[in-house]
Amino acid sequence: MFKRRLIVTAAATALLMGAALPALAQAPAPAATQAPAGVAVPPLGFQRRVLDNGMEVYTAQDRNTSNVAVQVWYRVGSKDDPQGRSGFAHLFEHLLFKATRNMPEETLDRLTEDVGGFNNAFTADDVTAYHEVVPANHLERILFAEAERLGSLVVDEDTFISERDVVKNEYRQRILASPYGRLFGLFMPQMIYQEHPYRRPGIGSIEDLDAATLDDVLRFHETYYRPDNAILIVAGNFDQPQLDGWIDQYFGPLERPDRPMPANDVAEPDITGPREATFYAPNVPLPAVVLSWPTVAYDHPDRAALTVLDGILSTGESSRMYRSLVYDQQIAAQASSMPDFAQQAGYLAAYSIMAGDATPEQGIASIQAEVARFRDEVVTEAELTEAKNELVAGALRERETTDQRASALGWALIMTGDPASADTEIAAIQAVTAADVQRVARRYLTPERTITVRYLNADDANPPSEQVLNVTAPVTLDDLAPAGELVTLAPEAERVPIPEPGAPLEPATPQISERTLANGVRVLVAPTGGLPLISARLSFEAGSADDPQGRAGVAALTASMVNQGTSRLSAPEIATQIEQLGASIGAGAGVDFTNVYANAPADVFSQTLALMAELVRDPAFAAEELERQQSQTLDGLRVALSEPGSIASQATGRVIYGDAPYGAPGSGTLTTVPTITRDDLAAFHAANWRPSTATLVFSGDITPETAYALAEQAFGDWAEPAAPAATVADPAGAPLAPRIVVIDQPGAGQAAVVAARRSITRTDEGYYPLLVGTNLLGGGYSSRLNQEIRIKRGLSYGAGASLGVRADQGVFTASTQTPNENAVEVAGLILAELNRLSAEPASEAELGPRQATLVGGFGRSLETVDGLGSWVANLALYDLPMSELAEYAGRVNAVTPAEVQAAAGRALGVDGISLVIVGDASLFIDGLRAAYPGVEVIALDDLNLDSATLQ
Questions:
Q1: Are 186 and 203 in contact, with CB atoms under 8 Å apart?
Q2: Of the residues 93, 113, 400, 825, which is catalytic?
Q3: Which of 30, 430, 456, 791 has its CA 20 to 30 A from that of 273?
Q4: What's CA 904's distance to the chain center, in Å?
Q5: pLDDT confidence bin for 5, thresholds 50/70/90
Q6: Dist. CA 297–CA 285, nearest whole Å
Q7: Kindly report the CA angle at 478 between 475 and 479, in degrees rounded to 5?
Q8: Which residues contact 329 (CB under 8 A, 6 or more apart)?
């Protein structure tokens, strides 16, 4: 429901990872806007009981799903890292996925991924949580596994060192290689907190990770992983008495230690005056500023008012920061805020990534001015209503799946200890008044309490700022419990057998209804039960491949301009109407297609669709709005060109397709974006956004009859243009010779390694064998690439592959990020695994689990209205029958090892592979040239994405 600091906010992540920024608004109501009465968010409805050993258990039955979610939340987080061991709770989280007395390493993946489920975990300031979703008939097996790793973890020295290397690579990827990783991950916490252990980064430091020992691991487990420090949450399709019996059987025997856990309740002293600092880092494309204010802990009455204040300040395009810094002054590429309410302390931070030539001082002054308004003036009722509606609608969306509902409960329990707070906090938000907002602004967001950070590009005069090390902490190694008896993996004959799965429950796919309007708009309806949410997706058969020659970015800019004004409404008016209803409207252009999408609570969906139709049919493409979008796009591209993975992704298109339409970057380039005119957008819209090529998909809490009536009302009188629709004859162009390209980025925190070649069309007869083969190679934690690169060697945080199908020949990629000095080794591992895919058949035992992961992921995606709508829309856009939705699982499971081998040999041969490596070439180029004599080296400053040669 609220923004939480696991790493950074979702909005910031787009820039941190170098992603282009899509056009995304937040919720509509047509012309004369009236605020809705309010969205009802159903209560979570969990049952509670406590085992004799102190473990809390919460369960919620849902017969409408064929899955079950299991989560275990431990009351230990990065604040509990012992002194000199920052990052330890997170490192330990990784190790808990290894062996137990009765389960060899990677067994948990066999019990989850291999049956169509998934597992994951996260570490935050106050908690470490482990979560799985599996088909409901596998519930007992997961309960067995969770009890096993709580009670009998096995870690040896080799496993410890390997997984520590993985975490160090995660640090390099998230902190060092990301242009703003140091700012949000390192420097902000150390500036905001003076005494509290929250000031240490949750991921730690390379030095502290290297200092950790196996004995530390065993003592940490003994100290914090105990039943009275754990919360078990189960939600989904189960029989309650049977579940209770399993919980008693597997968790009941675990003993509660008689020793207390280390005390860790540091009182952060209140700030006594303003603080500021300037930090420097390599490859920072745009300066950034952050202003922070210490506020309150999560379980404080003022949190609700501060949350609403944050919504008014920065949520959506009608928010104060966006309007002032991004829209009106145009001094920021991005401006937002993030409240972090942790268990023992909290803060609110407002940040700006500056645009163009704007200075940090301009950003600081503008943020200060917007915050001062909260102190000096009472917010309007319209702003208050918008913020509340967005927050409550967001809470509704975060309860679509059993896993989401379990997570909402888990956060409430960790932060407050009260399961009811997950529901009562919604009422608290709705009760906030304008006076409350002003009161908390005057109490907490004052000039005297301001912490100001400037973040700039390092140079010879200003070298990169160092991470603060040797930070004191309330918990020391001496406070940890003794390691206790060493647990080892039992001989196979002596292991307690893992329970067998029960009878499977078949997931249901919805019946798709279809009708075509008189003007050619194809309407598809996928009704579901569940929450009162509805999604609409309007798709057109044109994307970035249809950009005019030399005008890369036209399709993307056309989509981003949709919510920037009509002949009747200005961009700010559209944003305001959208946000008043807590819905979302956005648009984006892919390679072959453009999608306009909307999501809204059911009671305001008709208003949402009406506004969406106006935006689609009557965009103004105003010159001043185009200039704003161009400026924002250019700033986003500059950020993208500072991150190795994003650079590699953009360059790969040129390497595979050259000058063909598929080769140009879809978001445009630094040279093409400024040349795009209003006439270009209007012409693209007129030629390609038309009823005869449009598909409208409804999904969620809506009947076919209602959907057809809304479609007719919104689009029935939309006239087809007289001119014929534009088409691109050969978007992939002629095949090109493979290349080995290095883009040299001195000082890069890691190297991005991409192996790529032409793939197939979505309608190719080899689609399902290649889909399964690609998943075998690089789909998920247990895939071959991840096994070889991460699990066995610790060379990366993760590796994967994508089939990349398109309307014409797509692009297959296998990729990862790794320390620069390992780039050559990793490239060789990728090519070796790709060659093995066609050189020898997989065993049935290996292939079956990879098929299960595809089927399981498909089933889970249908549990959200947006996921379901996306599947239906994709089938329609590729002119595939709707029956494939129901047939998907069967077609995936029917693929044989021989079919995978044959299809890979035909379409994914290593002889057609190109390599693109982006990183600090001085650390790997000699070894790469020895292995690949024909390597091309291009300095990042010389990279030309407008050219097929990249130069």
A1: no
A2: 93
A3: 456
A4: 30
A5: very low
A6: 34
A7: 50
A8: 362, 366
Contact between 693 and 727 (Cβ < 8 Å): no
What are the pLDDT digits (tens) for 366-387? 999 999 999 999 999 999 999 9
CA distance 340 to 95: 27
User: Where do we find the tokens 């005390």?
Assistant: 263
Q: What contacts 641, CB < 8 A, 6 or more positions away?
A: 18, 285, 647, 650, 670, 940, 943
Tell me the Ramachandran region of residue 726: left when phi exceeds 0, alpha when psi lies from -120 to 50, beta otherwise: beta
- 694 close to 536: Cβ distance less than 8 angstroms: no
Give the tokens for residue 55: 């473990």
Residues in contact with 655: Cβ distance below 8 Å, sequence separation at least 6, in sequence order: 736, 739, 741, 756, 914, 916, 950
CA 611 to chain centre: 28
Task: Classify 721 as helix, strand or coil.
Answer: coil
**Strand residues in 670-717 grouped as ranges (E):** 694-700
Residue 12 has pLDDT above 50, yes or no: no
Chain centre distance of CA 144: 30
Token pair for residue 782?
Answer: 């247990």
In terms of DSSP bridges, do strands 914-919 and 751-758 run parallel, antiparallel, or are they unpaired?
antiparallel
Query: Average pLDDT for residues 778-799, to the nearest whole number?
Result: 94
Q: Are 309 and 374 within 8 A, CB to CB?
A: yes
Structure tokens at 669: 């380039």
Round to whole Å and give the CA distance between 341 and 428: 15
So what's the pLDDT on residue 38? 57
| Residues 731-767 as b or e (16 or more Cβ within 10 Å = b) | bbbeebebbbbbbbbeebbbbbbbbbbbbbbbebebb
Task: Give the separation between CA 89 and CA 106, rounded to whole angstroms.
Answer: 20
Which structure tokens are listed for 524? 């598809």
Task: Assign 706 to helix, strand or coil.
Answer: helix
Could you give the maximum distance between any two Cα atoms of the chain, in Å?
82
Task: Give yes or no for residue 62 having a pLDDT over 50.
Answer: yes
Per-residue confidence (pLDDT) for residue 21, from 0 to 100:
29
Non-local CB neighbours of 650 within 8 Å, separated by 6+ positions: 640, 641, 665, 945
Distance CA 204, CA 86 (A): 4
Strands 914-919 and 740-744 turn out to be: parallel
Residue 550's SS3 state is: coil
With contact defined as beta carbons under 8 Å apart, do 801 and 777 qualify? yes
492 alpha carbon, distance to own chain's centre? 39
Q: For residue 372, give the nearest of 446, 298, 304 by alpha carbon.
A: 446
> Rounded CA gap, 110 and 97, in Å?
11
**With the C-alpha atoms ordered 761, 763, 764, 766, is the resulting torsion angle positive or negative?**
positive
Count of positions (residues) in the chain: 951
Q: Are 328 and 381 in contact (CB under 8 A)?
A: no
Say what percent of the chain tops pLDDT 70: 96
The H helix count followed by the E strand count for the chain is: 32, 26
CA distances to 110, 270, 503 from 138, in Å: 11, 50, 9
Side chain identity, residue 754: V
SS (H, E, C) 850-914: HHHHHHHHHHHHCCCHHHHHHHHHHHHHCCCCCHHHHHHHHHHHCCCHHHHHHHHHHHCCHHHCE
pLDDT-based confidence at 47, cuts 50/70/90?
Answer: very high
- The tokens describing 612, both together, are 């969406």
Q: d(Cα 538, Cα 587) in Å, to the nearest integer?
A: 9
Whole-angstrom Cα distance, residue 205 to residue 172? 10
For residue 707, what pLDDT is reported? 98
* pLDDT at residue 29 in the model: 32
93 tagged catalytic: yes
Cβ contact 750:176 at 8 Å = yes
CB 786 within 8 A of CB 109: no
Amino acid in position 552: A
Residue 466 in tokens: 């160092």
d(CA 426, CA 2): 11
